[in-house]
Write a structure and sequence with these properties.
Blueprint: H1 20-31, H2 36-52, H3 58-70, H4 75-94, H5 106-121, H6 137-145, H7 151-164, H8 170-174, E1 181-184, E2 187-191, E3 201-203, H9 206-222, H10 244-257, H11 269-281, H12 286-292, H13 298-304
C-alpha cells in the first residue's frame, strides 16, 4: 500500500495551498494505474476541480458541480467528472490521505441527482457542441472596450485577444505560462501545452503581446507571483490558475454586457471560431488558417465554415 500520511477530516477546512504538492503526487500515482485515454481525461477533470475549489470539503464539492450545471455542462459530462473525482478520492481514502470520500456521501448523491436533472433540461450544453458562432470585428472591439485597465479588465482583455488572434482553445489558454512567451528570430511566439493539433507553437500577434505585457505588470503590482498567465482574482482563487469553467463564464458575461446577439449561446470556443473566420475574411488562405489553428486535417478547418458565407472581396491585411 502507498504510504501517505493521514490528515484532518473532510468536514474541516483543509487548505489546498499546504497540500497541493502531496495531492498532485498522489494524482500522478493514481493515473498511472489507468489506461492512457482514461488517465488523460481523469487527470484533467481532477486538476480542474482542484483549481476551482478552495478547500477539500463536501460543501466545496457540491458548489463546484452546481457551478458546472449553471455553465451548461451536460449530464454525461457531469457524470464523467463525478466518476473521476469519486475514484480519485476513494484512492486517497484507501491510502490514508483523507478520512472520507465526499463524492460517495448521501448528501452528495441527492445533490448530484438534481444537478443532472437540471442539466438535462438546460438549453446550454457545452458537450453537445451547439452550432458555432463567430463574432463580427466590431463586436470583438465592443467586448474589449468593456475590459478597462483594472487587473481584472487586463486579464479579461487578454482572454479575448488570445482567442480571436491566437485561436487558442480553453484548455490551452488556462495552461499558458509566462515562460511560454518566446523571442525568436522571426518574432515572438507562444508555446502551446498539450495542443490537440500537430504543432506546439503559434505566432504571437503584437497586439496580444502588448496586452500580456500590461497584464504581467499588473500582476507584479498586485503581488501575484503565479507562473500562469490567467489566474483567479477572487479571495478564494487569488493567484491560482484560472479554470476552464471560470474562463467560459468571463466570456459569457462580456458577451452579454456588450449586447451581442444570442449572447447566451456565446462560449470561449467561439473566440477560436471567430479567429478562423476573421483570418479568412482578411485574406488568409485556408491552409494558413489550418496551420494557425493547429489542425491535423484541413477538413477540420473547413467544418468551422460550413454554415458561413465568406465575402468574395476580402481585405489585404489579415487582421487589424
Amino acid at each position: 500500500m502507498i504510504q501517505i500520511k493521514v490528515v484532518k477530516a473532510m468536514t474541516e477546512l483543509i487548505t489546498l495551498d499546504t497540500r497541493k504538492a502531496e495531492i498532485l503526487k498522489a494524482l500522478n500515482i493514481f493515473v498511472s494505474l489507468l489506461k492512457a485515454n482514461t488517465a488523460r481525461a481523469y487527470q484533467k477533470d481532477v486538476e480542474e476541480f482542484l483549481a476551482g475549489v478552495k478547500d477539500l470539503t463536501l460543501k466545496e464539492a457540491m458548489a463546484y458541480f452546481q457551478q458546472l450545471q449553471s455553465e451548461g455542462y451536460s449530464a454525461s459530462t457531469i457524470d464523467r467528472k463525478k466518476a473521476a473525482l469519486s475514484k480519485f478520492f476513494q484512492f486517497l481514502y484507501e491510502n490514508g490521505q483523507t478520512s472520507s470520500n465526499p463524492f460517495t456521501t448521501e448528501t452528495f448523491r441527492m445533490m448530484i441527482k438534481k444537478v443532472r436533472q437540471d442539466a438535462d433540461r438546460s438549453e446550454a450544453n457545452l458537450s453537445n457542441k451547439p452550432e458555432a458562432h463567430h463574432l463580427k470585428w466590431d463586436e470583438v472591439e465592443r467586448m474589449l472596450s468593456l475590459c478597462g485597465s483594472s487587473l481584472e479588465g487586463l486579464r479579461n482583455r487578454s482572454i479575448i485577444l488570445l482567442g480571436v488572434y491566437e485561436g487558442l482553445r480553453r484548455s490551452e489558454m488556462v495552461n499558458l505560462k509566462w515562460s511560454d512567451i518566446r523571442e525568436e528570430v522571426n518574432g515572438r511566439s507562444l508555446m502551446i501545452r498539450a495542443a490537440k493539433g500537430g504543432t506546439d507553437r503559434v505566432d504571437l500577434h503584437k497586439r496580444v503581446y502588448e496586452a500580456l505585457e500590461d497584464l504581467q505588470k499588473a500582476h507584479q503590482n498586485a503581488g501575484i507571483e503565479s507562473e500562469y498567465i490567467l489566474v483567479g482574482l477572487s479571495n478564494r482563487s487569488q493567484g491560482k490558475k484560472l479554470s476552464e469553467v471560470s474562463l467560459n463564464r468571463i466570456v459569457k458575461v462580456l458577451a452579454k454586457a456588450a449586447g451581442l446577439k444570442k449572447n447566451e449561446e456565446i462560449t470561449a470556443h467561439d473566440l477560436r471560431h471567430t479567429c478562423a473566420v476573421q483570418l479568412l475574411l482578411h485574406g488568409a488562405s485556408i491552409e494558413r488558417v489550418s496551420s494557425h489553428l493547429r489542425h491535423k486535417n484541413i477538413q477540420t478547418t473547413m467544418t468551422y465554415l460550413k454554415t458561413l458565407e465568406i465575402h468574395e472581396n476580402s481585405a489585404v491585411a489579415f487582421l487589424p
